[in-house]
Amino acid sequence: MFMEVNMEKESPEKAKKRKIDDDGDGDKAREESESFNGFKVKAVINENARQKYLFLHCTKNDEDAVVLLEKTPFDSSMTDQILSDNTKIRQTLQNDIYHTYSALLPENLNGVKATVICPASEKHIKKYTEQESFVIQETAELYTKVTLPYLEKHAFSTKWVYNILEKKKEADRIVFENADPDTGFILLPDMKWDGKDLNSLYLQAIVHKHGLKSVRDLNKSHLPLLNNILEEGADVINQEYGIPKSKLRIYIHYQPSYYHLHVHFNHINLESPGFDADRAHLLVDVIENIEMNDSYYQDKTLVYRVREQDELYKLYQDEGYFVDFPINTSISSNSSLTAAS
Amino acid sequence: MFMEVNMEKESPEKAKKRKIDDDGDGDKAREESESFNGFKVKAVINENARQKYLFLHCTKNDEDAVVLLEKTPFDSSMTDQILSDNTKIRQTLQNDIYHTYSALLPENLNGVKATVICPASEKHIKKYTEQESFVIQETAELYTKVTLPYLEKHAFSTKWVYNILEKKKEADRIVFENADPDTGFILLPDMKWDGKDLNSLYLQAIVHKHGLKSVRDLNKSHLPLLNNILEEGADVINQEYGIPKSKLRIYIHYQPSYYHLHVHFNHINLESPGFDADRAHLLVDVIENIEMNDSYYQDKTLVYRVREQDELYKLYQDEGYFVDFPINTSISSNSSLTAAS
């Protein structure tokens, strides 16, 4: 989420300033002294205890601002300094061989990354505000009645995908191609991968065939295509990166982020939020389900999560889908439990 | 992982000391002054940039020790102090409305939780050392040949489960029971849930019927049982906790952590590592797959992850399973890429 901030093209002056500011040693004099002075917190709009981030909606001089704070990871090359006398520790519990402490690290080893968007539009605030999620059980009937009309009405542009397939863009990034128009695909690194750290390896296979919107459209006629992706994809990744098949997660998203069939290849060590059981469909499962039943993905109820800003959520709400599962608006994390416990 | 440290029963003296140490205000004089003085780092045994933890294997006075460090979450009740003058910020980038900074928070707002196990046995060190993971595609044949004999040989004790079902233990924790011996189940909070925060709601439904080891054993005869769990489980959770079905993840693990059929109920907001697509099988999918094909879970290839310390990994290795997918031992995150990029 942090990484999604889109930096627009910067002027030469700004680039120069950035170079100065970005030298990372922290000792150089700054052009301007900076502080959070003047920021007033209006609301906590998102926080995550596991990932240690906190997003705030603030105002500064009557302008809206979004402040994104995230604790930095430990620098594992600094272990000697982390365990030095400069770290103050206070015991909170001791039991036999187990000791727990609250520790205060030297400031320089314990930084926070902050991103400020100011002035922030309503859209910025919405983007970083935690959204409520809901589960949809999309039956074959609901697909035909709600989801498919939505897809057809929007005819989401996949021009950028065709640019890749036609080598007009990103041609130098292609790792492998099977050029067959029906059963072929292009394999290239996902934008989220730095291309270096093999533990976070992330590639995508994009099929040459047009018109396959998602897993919903797949049947036995697509088995040669799916088997090619599974076998050639895994083979190429083993050859090029030395990662065997037993270290790969190979899956299709439903709902996908764009409606042109593509397959995700991740290193097993990558903690990808997109690998949840209500979004990721393993390619081997997809192949075997279709082998078992030609119309498996046309008949099957598919479960996925939507967020309150998603158009699909609104369409299912309009359809009355959530009436059967009314939302209890009195839910709060402080509600007392009526259950035995 | 951090929460897994098992504290043994403590003596009254220790309990008293803990009470003193645990008062949380940080100002009281300590019985003993503490520091990491004398700890020598032997190895980084695990680290996670997303969750901000770092596990170290150390020695202290020639004894082995494990040091577990984890950054604490932001305290969202302290936002005014976080954005005060006491936080030093240094700009690293500025582009139009986007500003990024590295920030140094006042020590007291930026703590680290440390757990020390000393002296640590080899088993402790192993427990906290990152393990390599592997994907197994368990075909019906491999299940019969490798997995099933392993399950039968070990006849894993489920006495503690029978204690719950027979109300010998944890009877006061039961939220709901359908007492039918074939189609009934007991619903109770999972140990991982504090029973309070509804956003991390976690319950388990444990079936009364004995002998159902896992999803592999399910067929059409179990549909009444599975439908009961799905419907009554979701209804009870809605009544007792005010959480509607559209906010629940309901799933079965394969491999499970114990071999007596049980179903997990999570609030959708809970970030549970057990919800990965290579472990969690949604209950609605299980029901529909069986309705489609009585022997779906006997015939189906099931994909799951094993870790190098797991006995199943060793058994599949002995079986020659990984020979088809040789592990390239030269893999490292610094390997240069041979692929086009």
TrEMBL record, chains A, B:
It is found in: Cytoplasm; Nucleus. Residues 1-33 are annotated as: Disordered. It holds the Pfam family DcpS_C. Its EC number is 3.6.1.59. It catalyses: a 5'-end (N(7)-methyl 5'-triphosphoguanosine)-ribonucleoside in mRNA + H2O = N(7)-methyl-GMP + a 5'-end diphospho-ribonucleoside in mRNA + 2 H(+). Signal peptide: none annotated. The active site is at residue 262. Residues 1-14 have a biased composition (Basic and acidic residues). GO terms for biological process: deadenylation-dependent decapping of nuclear-transcribed mRNA; mRNA processing; RNA splicing. Substrate binds at residues 160, 170, 190, 192, 253-264. Transmembrane segments: none annotated. One of its GO terms (molecular function) is 5'-(N(7)-methyl 5'-triphosphoguanosine)-[mRNA] diphosphatase activity. Homodimer. Associates with components of the exosome multienzyme ribonuclease complex, such as EXOSC3 and EXOSC4. Interacts with NDOR1. PANTHER family: HISTIDINE TRIAD HIT PROTEIN MEMBER, M7GPPPX DIPHOSPHATASE. Decapping scavenger enzyme that catalyzes the cleavage of a residual cap structure following the degradation of mRNAs by the 3'->5' exosome-mediated mRNA decay pathway. This is m7GpppX diphosphatase.
